[in-house]
Every structure is written in C-alpha cells, then in structure tokens.
Amino acid sequence: MIFIVEDMAAPKKNSIPAVYVLPSDNTDLQSFSKKFKLDMMEQVVGIIEFAMTNELPLIEVFQFKNSDFVITLSEKDYLTNLDNIYSYYLNNEIYEYCPRVVRLQKLLKERFVNTTNENQTSKQQ
Question: Does some domain include residue 7?
Fold first, then answer.
C-alpha cells in the first residue's frame, strides 16, 4: 500500500493541470468517450475550477493524440458546461460529485452578478 503525504505547511503550486489526450480516430474517440465519460467530465470540472482560481478567460481542456487540435473552454462557457455535467450527475445518481459542481456554479453566478453590478455602477457615473 502506498500513501502520498502532502506537506500542509508547504504552499500549493498553481501549476496548470495535465491536459487530457483523446484518440484522434473517430471510432476510437467514441469508444473512449463512452468508457471514460465520468473521467472526462471530472477533467472539465477540474479545469474550470483551475481557470476560475487563476482568473483565466480561456483554458485548454483536451487535445487529440498525434494532432495539433485542442478543445478549449472560454469563461462564458464555464457555467453551461457545469450545468450540463451537474444534470448528468443527477440523472445518473452520481451524487458524490455534485457538491463540487454546485460550489463552482455558485461562484460563477456570484461573479456574474458582481461584474454586472460593477458595470452598471460605472455606466451611471
């Protein structure tokens, strides 16, 4: 049995999470997506969380094996992706993953409200 112990006193590094590599072939991609759907969703949630923490407007989520093509998410799409993932978790009764998604949804909605209020205040001045 292997235990990984994290030094709680050491500051956590804000390193960019690893990018998920997808098969380039369409048939392989379909099979891979079915088999690793939950892992891929968690990758999206994790990368959105990272992007929010680091205030990134765009982040790379997936890349394709032996290809220069990548899939990115922009800030305007974070909430929609989280909403879809949350619905999938609920419909498939994967409740243990829901709290993290709900927390991120709430943070995004709060940011949107704060940004909207700031924009309205600056227009009035």
Answer: no
